[in-house]
Structure formats: structure tokens, C-alpha cells
Amino acid sequence: MTERVYEFSWDIIGDLQAGRPNLGDQVNFILYRLMHYTFHEVFVKHFGDEESNRLFHESGNIAGQFFFERFLNEYKELPLEAFLEKLRTTFSDNGINFVRIDSVNVESREFAISVATGTEAADFDNIKLERCDYDSGFVKGILVKYTGKEFVAVSVNTSSVLNNFSEWGGTIGLIPYRMLQYTVRDVAEQKVGMETCNRLFYDAGVVAGYFFYDNFLARFKDLPLNGFTGELQRVLRELGVGVLRLEKANPEKGEFTLTVSEDLDCSGLPDMGLEVCNYDEGFIASVFCKYTGVSFMAKEVDCWCSGDRTCRFAVNRN
Fold first, then answer.
1. Which of 44, 99, 224, 282 is 20–30 Å from 79 (CA)?
2. Which domains does the chain have, with CATH numbers?
3. More reliable by pLDDT, 170 or 183
4. 244 and 233 in contact (C-beta within 8 Å)?
5. Is the pLDDT at 314 greater than 70, yes or no?
6. What pLDDT, on the 0 to 100 scale, is given for residue 123?
7. How many CB atoms sit inside 10 A of residue 225's CB?
8. What local confidence, expressed as pLDDT, does residue 156 receive?
């Protein structure tokens, strides 16, 4: 059996207050959807549609069960309608306003949900989730814990409610963001091992960086390096990604060192003795590639999860 380096537990959400004292526990909803969509694209290419959908559903199921234990266990004796009302409130408190539970039938063990996907966002037309397997798995995990019975999703309605990612200011809690990332990582790691899983996350970050650049940074492409990195720093902070600093730069050799404090993906996590920000590596490499027009690779050399309190990336031209 594959060793589960990233076996999901609530500890992996991390201490958000210690990790994000200035940026807080909310991030722009863009970042959640961007990660979700790019994971889905890369996983479909690697696993195929059916297996990728199963992987996302299983990840959501794990997240839902942990979410129940953390936030809803005290309401498990309530009748169904009262429980669902508590569930809706808890969703709202955690910024999960894009999933609506339409109906639950305990006798037939079926439920229906509606999910706002935002698939019509500018320049995101080729990254679409035709099914919301993670979200249906998430709701299923909650209902399984509440009833002690298995459930199936009988329908998932998706609607496009976001007009343009770069203009939409909604937020989501960092808890559901990290639940998505680390449950998907756990399930994928069990299937293909840590090394391949890291590569898949890197590849997803590359896709994410490409779209992020086009939507947020392309208008700064003619700025000199200091000006461009200043705009990148501003955008990343405004969206809640982290606090970027260009530590070293040698443009002639194509060698750069960046640090990201209060990092969205790892700040406040326990010390795991390894660098975990593979998605960020791909993201940074892609942004540099788009800005310069040449290929870059990024490698995390320091991380909160390896004992440091900032993430440090070596970015080098290929």
C-alpha cells in the first residue's frame, strides 16, 4: 500500500491565526475555483474522466465527514429540517455560499444540490466542470455522518453566476480551500504515490498561473521587472494569496529567489519535514514564463511545513 504522507486530518488545515495574522482566514473565491478547475483539468488528462470524477467525489466525501465532525456533530440529534437549517448556516459562516441543498430524502437515501460554478468566466471556457463530483461528495459525507446511511446524489444542477473572475469580489473561508486541496492530495497520493502526485499539483499550478496572468497581470507586461513584481505583489496580497517579496534577482542569468509569507496553501500547517507547495511552484514558474516569454522552473527550498515561517522559491530559466 502507498504510504500516505498527506493523509487528511483536521491538523492539516493548520493554525490559521498563527499562519495568517495579517491576511486572515478568508480568500477570494477566484482562488478556490481556479485551483478546483486546474486540478480537474490535469487529473482528467492523467486519469481519464471517469476515474478523475471518482477521485473528486471520494475527496469531497472525506472532506464532508471531517467537516461534520468539526462543525455539526452537536446537531446530529436534530430532526432533518432543523439539521439542514444548521447546515446552511454553517456553510454560510465558512463562506460556502455556492452549494445549495435542494432536497434530502432519507428513506430513499437521495439528495439533490445546486452548485454555482462560474464556468463562463473570461478566458476560462476550456476549464469546465460538467459535474460537481467534489461538491456532491462533500454533501454526501455530511449526510452519511448525520444519518448513518449511505446516500447518492440524484441530480446536480450547475449554474454560471460569475461574469468575470477578475471583477468578482466574493470570498471563501480558508478552511474549505484547504479541505479541497488536501483531501484531493490524499486520495491522489493513495492512487499514484507522492512523487507523481507532486508532479500533478505542479502541472495544475502551471495551468493556474497561465490563466491568472492573463486575467490579472497581462496589462503590466511592459513594465520593468521591479514594476511587474510590485504589481504581482499587490494582486497576490489583495486576493489573499500571500505576501510576496523578491529577495534576489539576476535577470541576465534568469535566476530569482522569491519569498511568500502567510502563504495560502501552507501557513500555519504542522511541521511535516517537507516542502508542500508544489502547486505554488508551478504557478510561479508559469507567471514568470508568461511575463518573460521564456521557460522557467520553480522549486520551493523553504516552507512552513519544513520548519520555516516563510516559503522560499528558487526560480530559474530552463
1. 99
2. 10-187 (3.30.1380), 205-317 (3.30.1380.20)
3. 183
4. yes
5. yes
6. 43
7. 13
8. 66
Q: What is the SS3 assignment for 59?
A: helix
8-state DSSP, 154:
E
Rounded-to-integer distance, Cα 50 and Cα 192, Å: 16
In whole angstroms, give the CA distance from residue 169 to residue 116. Answer: 15
- Structure pTM? 0.91
Write the pLDDT tens digit of every residue in 29-68: 889 989 998 999 999 999 999 999 999 999 999 999 999 9
Q: Are strands 296-302 and 243-250 parallel, antiparallel or unpaired?
A: unpaired
3-state secondary structure the chain: CCCCCCCCCHHHHCCHHHHCCCCCCEEEHHHHHHHHHHHHHHHHHHHCHHHHHHHHHHHHHHHHHHHHHHHHHHHCCCCHHHHHHHHHHHHHHCCCCCEEEEEEECCCCEEEEEEECCCCCCCCCCCCCCCCHHHHHHHHHHHHHHHCCCCEEEEEEEECCCCCHHHCCCEEEHHHHHHHHHHHHHHHHHHHCHHHHHHHHHHHHHHHHHHHHHHHHHHHCCCCHHHHHHHHHHHHHHHCCCEEEEEEEECCCCEEEEEEECCCCCCCCCCCCCCCCHHHHHHHHHHHHHHHCCCEEEEEEECHHHCCCCEEEEEEEC
Task: Write the Ramachandran bin of 146: left for phi over 0, alpha for psi from -120 to 50, otherwise beta.
Answer: alpha
Q: Are strands 311-317 and 296-302 parallel, antiparallel or unpaired?
A: antiparallel
**Whole-number percent of the chain with pLDDT over 70:** 89
- What is the rounded distance in angstroms from the CA atom of residue 104 to the CA atom of residue 241? 36
Tell me the percentage of the chain whose pLDDT exceeds 90: 78
